[in-house]
Amino acid sequence: MVFALLQGTNISSSMRLFSPKLVNEIVNKLPTFLDQSSKEALLNVAVSIAVIAFIAYQAMTLALMSSKKDDRGMGPGIEGSRYKDKASGDDSCFADLHDYLFKEKEYFYEQMKLRRSVRSFTSKSVPMKIVQNIIKIAGCSPSVGNTQPWKFCVVLNEKRKAEIRSLIEEDARNNYVRRMGEGTEWVMGVSQLQETWKRPYLTDAPVLLVVCHEIFKTVEDKEVRLFHYNQISTAIAIGMMLSSIQDCANDIFQERRTAQDDQPNVMTDV
């Protein structure tokens, strides 16, 4: 009987259940044998059903939103869990971070934590595409006024690498003997430590990346010396370049480790 009454109202959407006009139409179409108390009871039942449906809809919406947050890896707590802020480099420092944010920061920190100053290289060639990507990443570094005062030079020629090594070793030797040396005893002592200023890795490495920056710039037909911020901007670019090199090295180490794990173990008699 109620279904027949609803068909006559021409309902187009569920939201019309809350329309006062719709409620009046339903009440007017009730059979005449119902008294006033029966009409009020039926109206209360209809309103109760509508309220229950609204509460159920809100509960489903909240459950759906909660499931989406869980999929993103966020913790159930509002403040998140307390973790060690490894990004600061201090293991005794704590910070309130969401789980998924901490995982990303921790991953980047663990990658950079593996960085080492390497002074021994193999002669194996490096794909030029990797070198180009390293320079592209370094070129994304910020600079004052977007001047980008740096220039990255790729050196592959053995003769050029030998010349660069000679210049750097001479400057390093002068740094010990002339700039830092005080008295004959210091100079004689340094002469016994020739390994200190030798740089054999400059010729052993298959590729050299030489970073230059602008010192002078022509402005209105005059040569003007640029300020120190060019050196700072170039230093930041070098830092990003070293980070990209470290990321490439981690990928290579992971590939070699995976290849070694895939190899079968062979037992031989000695």
From TrEMBL:
GO CC terms: plasma membrane
UniProt keyword Transmembrane helix present: yes
InterPro entries: Nitroreductase, Nitroreductase-like, Nitroreductase/BluB
One Pfam family per UniProt: Nitroreductase
Superkingdom of source: Eukaryota
BP terms from Gene Ontology: tyrosine metabolic process
Keywords: Flavoprotein, FMN, Membrane, Oxidoreductase, Transmembrane, Transmembrane helix
Annotated transmembrane regions: 41-64
Entry's Gene Ontology molecular function annotations: iodotyrosine deiodinase activity
Gene3D superfamilies: NADH Oxidase
Domain Nitroreductase: start-end pairs: 115-242
Family statement drawn from the similarity comment of this UniProt entry: Belongs to the nitroreductase family.
Record-linked PANTHER family: IODOTYROSINE DEIODINASE 1, NADPH NITROREDUCTASE
Protein name as catalogued: Nitroreductase domain-containing protein
Organism in which the protein naturally occurs: Heligmosomoides polygyrus (Parasitic roundworm)
